Amino acid sequence: MEELIKLLDNHLTLLSTDFQEDTIYLLVESTLNEVSCPFCGTLSSRVHSRYLREFQDLPLQNRKTIIRLHNRKFFCDNPNCTHRTFAEPFTFIRPKSKKTNRLIEEIITLSKSMSSISAEKYLRKNVVRVGKSTICELLKKGR
Fold first, then answer.
1. What is the per-residue pLDDT for 52?
2. What is the pTM of this model?
3. Which InterPro entries does the entry mention (predicted)?
């Protein structure tokens, strides 16, 4: 499982794995000591707080996958920056998103070949918890 987490980001480490019915829960955290502020680029190592971020990823072993990330907020020490704190950014998921970028691409690819209702049924059964409105929204955005 550790290798699969490294595919998302080389700086993630797997803390625990929990199998429940048709879902795998992976608890991960970043190993970086310093992170660049996404607003000004200043490096920061001062942690403001921590929170648990939960999102869906591609299925593993025919099970839905939920990743729980111990995310950190950092102080930005640049007095000219527009933000005092920022959440640790990751390239594999957009801010505030509940699905990884690669999962979103998979949803869009599958949904283009069938109706949104059929896509919802197939995806809910085999891949991910997703609704018809989410599928339509993703198709409209054309990500």
1. 98
2. 0.86
3. Transpos_ISL3, Transposase_Znf
